[in-house]
Amino acid sequence: MTESNKSDVKPKLRDLPSIKEAEHQANNLKMVKAAMPVLSPFLKMLGVDSELIKKHFKKQRIVWVI
Length: 66
Description:
- This protein has 66 residues and is an all-alpha fold.
- It contains three helices and no strands.
- The protein has a domain at 14-59.
């Protein structure tokens, strides 16, 4: 790539730090949601209302538009 072409390259939306952080957080939420069947009994033993957490996961959908 020549010097003139390098300046013509526009950053992509997904390269922005705030978008990367949002993507990272969404991936973490997906992992927690996937682990809920295993985590739920332990959370109940700690007094956490895991049914409420499951309810919120069902209510909220993570949809990627990027």
